[in-house]
Write a structure and sequence with these properties.
alpha/beta, globular, about 25% strand, single chain, 7-stranded mixed β-sheet, 4-stranded mixed β-sheet
């Protein structure tokens, strides 16, 4: 039923990922599909929750240690932000250094231009060159910044959404985008007590549950689904072997539904895996970056070592002498 009214505006990749993900065992749908308008709003709410420490702690590091961060990075950089979204943390970085240009890269063009305009209003003398692209692949940068030194910025611990092999691919893609000698400032969440981690992804107010279950609402709305929402519940677990929080959507009883004309059945207790959030100890973080072609030169954390901001340099790997 191509080109009918219900199909208009639906991303074919969303349909493909959802149908393939529901067929697969274990069932899994990529986390990137959380972020429709409602999902993006719910994520903003998550960042304000008392249990969700990463956003708050990362901001406090950027803010409280801005002098040291500025010293390590130096002036005159073209700041290239991967998945800039609302650019919420960008002013903290831009105030810490004296940048020569800002290049936000995001897949959502409309959001990108809005936040670029908002940022330009606060930094009127800074050239801003938005790039609409999928930042997980190498991106060609605007000619205007070709001769400037580059600083990649990837805050928020979003690298944790990737499994380590994909994280390494992505780090390599960033290196290809930015070039040898570039710097990268990246946020990574630390491994910590299971209670704290699980609470951060299963908050008392139920905002993370709503964020997770919103995926089903999106499927029903955009892919002509009839998933009974009240049959499903949010589940967040710490997988210690794989050092990650996993979010799942669990069927509370046997259930049948259809999506885009295809029928599915799930048994009570079966889940759809919707997100991984990998956590990295100090050594893990450095070796992951190393594997992706980045050598860590500086590291800033909060007093309780809950979260880390790492500065790394794209260096050619020299084999053993
Ligand atoms: C945006 C990927 C960093 O993994 O902590 C928050 C997303 N999911 N609560 C994270 C998220 C549930 C978040 N990242």
């Amino acid at each position: 039923m191509a080109d009918t009214e219900t199909d208009a505006g639906v991303d074919p990749a969303f349909r493909r990922d959802v149908l393939a993900g529901l067929e697969a065992r274990p069932r899994a749908i990529p986390a990137r599909w959380f972020y429709d308008l409602r999902g993006s709003e719910l994520f903003e709410e998550i960042t304000d929750l008392p249990e969700y420490y990463p956003t708050r702690v990362e901001r406090s590091i950027l803010d409280g240690q801005s002098a040291a961060i500025g010293d390590a990075i130096g002036a005159g950089q073209a700041v290239v932000e991967f998945g800039s979204g609302s650019s919420a943390k960008t002013p903290l970085l831009l105030n810490a250094i004296s940048p020569a240009a800002y290049v936000p890269i995001d897949i959502s063009g409309e959001f990108l231009r809005e936040s670029a305009d908002a940022l330009s209003a606060d930094f009127p003398d800074l050239p801003v060159h938005p790039v609409e692209a999928d930042f997980t692949h190498p991106v060609s940068l605007p000619a205007a910044i070709a001769d400037l030194p580059k600083l990649g910025f990837f805050p928020g611990s979003t690298i944790g959404n990737f499994t380590p092999p994909h994280a390494v691919d992505f780090l390599r893609a960033m290196k290809e985008t930015l070039g040898e000698g570039a710097l990268l400032l990246i946020g990574m969440d630390r491994i910590k007590g299971e209670d704290v981690l699980v609470r951060a992804y299963d908050d008392a107010a139920g905002v993370t549950a709503a964020f997770n279950l919103n995926l089903l609402e999106r499927i029903n709305r955009e892919l002509d689904g009839d998933i009974p929402l009240d049959t499903f519940r949010h589940k967040a677990v710490w997988n210690d072997m794989l050092a990650r929080i996993e979010m799942h959507i669990e069927a509370a009883r046997d259930v049948e539904f259809s999506v885009s004309g295809r029928d599915f059945a799930m048994a009570e207790g079966e889940t759809i895996h919707t997100e991984n959030s990998h956590k990295y100890g100090p050594r893990d973080a450095r070796i992951l970056l190393r594997a992706g072609g980045w050598t860590v030169t500086h590291e800033w954390t909060d007093d309780a070592d809950q979260f880390a901001l790492l500065l790394a340099e794209a260096r050619p790997e020299v084999t053993a002498p």
